[in-house]
Design brief:
heterodimer; A: mainly alpha; MetI-like fold; 2 domains; two-stranded antiparallel ribbon; 2 strands; flat; B: alpha/beta; D-Maltodextrin-Binding Protein, domain 2; nine-stranded mixed sheet; two-stranded antiparallel sheet; 18% strand
Amino acid sequence: MQGHDLAQNGGKAAVAGGRLSHRASRLGFRLFFGGPLVLWQGAFFVAPVAFMVVMTFWSVRNYQLSPDFTFSNWHKILTEYYVWDAFLRSLIGAGLAAVLSTVISFPCAYYLGLKASPRVRLLGACLIIAPFFTSFLVRAYTWRTILGDQGIVNAFLGWFNLGPARLTNDLFGTVVGYMTLVMPLVLLLQLFSLAAVDRRLIEAGQNLGCSPLQTIYRVIVPAARNGIVLAAAFAFVLSFGDLISPQVLGGSNPPTLSILIVDQVRGGLQWPRASVIAVMMVVTLTAVVAAAMRLAYRGSKDADIR
Amino acid sequence: MVDKRFGSGLAVGQTRRGFLKAGAAAGSLALAAPMIIRKARAEDKVLNWLTYSGHSADEVIGPFVKETGIQIRAKEYADGEKMLALIHGSPPGTFDLVTSDAPYVALLVKSNLLQPMNPADYNLNDFFPEFRHWSQHWFGDKLMALLTSWGYNGLAYNTEKLTAEDVSTYDVMWSDKVKGKLGMRDWYLPVMGCISAGMGHKHPYNISDAQFAALKKHMFTLKPNVAGFWDFAGVFDSFANGGAYVIPGCGDWITGLLQRANHPIASAVPKEGAIMWTESISIIRNTPRLENAKKLVRYLTGVEGQTRLMTKSSYMANGPSEAAWKHLVQVKPKEAEMLHMTDKPDNIMATLRSGRIIPRRLPKNQSMESWQEAYTEFQNL
């Protein structure tokens, strides 16, 4: 009996030990795969952002940064009307880019994701990726040639005695730049999420009498909602911080927040003020992404992945 | 250089491809800089030179390297603020020499970064008399820099759309002829300097607060004509593609490149005066390579170095050396013509002597921030 107990206890201990080593190995596993990410994010995201926030309280004397604790940079930036103008302008431009790229990409992503054969889908995906092979700066300058006063579009308008239309050096040009930057990404993300929609849902919808249009907005769009919303959020984030589009295609006329950051540094090396604007942008983007996540996962059965 | 001319412009090439290539080269140089600098410390026959785009190209310093065996490790930059950031952000001893815009020499002197120079070490007698004792380079009785290049920023214009008569005054910027075709550089200093000169200020950067307020107001009235605010590539492209007929704050240094590419674009010094830009070389205080540094300064201010600096492909420039000027007229008459460095009575030195080319300075009675801010407001209108 006693021997049996011993054996039983020993068995329990062995099981516990096994659990422990199992747990330890799971911890090791997590550290191995999660550690680099944590280190990377700590060194290249958290620390720089923290430093940027600290710098907003520093001051500049004789064109040299000196550690300080002053609110003057915050006061200066937050009370300037042109900063808020630029803020609103950046919001509108990036918002337009997000909405337009979502709407324009959808039919293409719908066709490639749900209608096209696997072969065509692969070809389509390759074509979507192709723009990434060229630098965005080059693509932006190419638009200047197309949209410029003597560009291709205006030459075409000229045949019909129309124009010349002003297509660059304003918000229109800037948004064209944003779209060039974000469309491939939006299209890819939409394609992935549409291709993953359960076909049985679509069939069920059709069996229950949905018209093709109803199938799209009552079945497919809700099913692919998180991908579509996240793609739009990405578009917003990338456009909001882009410097090339407002500079090269928008002609800094008028400026966006990213251009104001450059201006702060140019006129007297005002890194602290530039940091204040950068913090404004980070806060805005965090809010937009959080709202997008809510919209993407609200009420869905994927909610627990948050 | 690009600084005074194009704040955010990258390295300047004749073509957009050249520009991009130069940008890529500058980028890779920036990435490699720490390695280059570390390597340089171990050797002696080297010089670390912080300078404007295009200066360390073989077409400029080739003969110097060949003759002396001294390798040039250059870090090139495109605007003065970046130069200040680089020099303040690098450990002492990173650079042996720095080429900067004359107004920035004052800032470097203020930070005690420069080594006084002995005028006797250099052949200043080759210089035009007005450049031998250039006031922006002397601090008390100490010489802190030597002029290597200069030029002017007046009005650049499309000769098919505007006449020389039109651009003889800055008033043309308000004319209906250039509605929607008035380009602006995205850098406040030269543009605001030109507008200030246009208002009759003999010292465009030394104005009272009341005059500054008037300058802002006057500048804002230009906005309906403005097409956009551009960096170097944007200015180049806009002139080439009809997006702009006139742009203030430009000169032969850029229109020379456009002429080389057969575009009908020229520069003018309006009667109210153009703003001078300068490039000066200084030696960094306590450099362990003082003799090498002196050799490079002698080369760059000598006939060979000067001729090459004036005609380099990144951007053209006038030079302070009379001897080099004479040499240029003989060996490269076409370029001499483009730079108005001829024997004709209306050459660039005559214009300078007439007082119509005004040295550029930093704003005196207001901060750089407030000038930049006025420009941002102008853009924001």
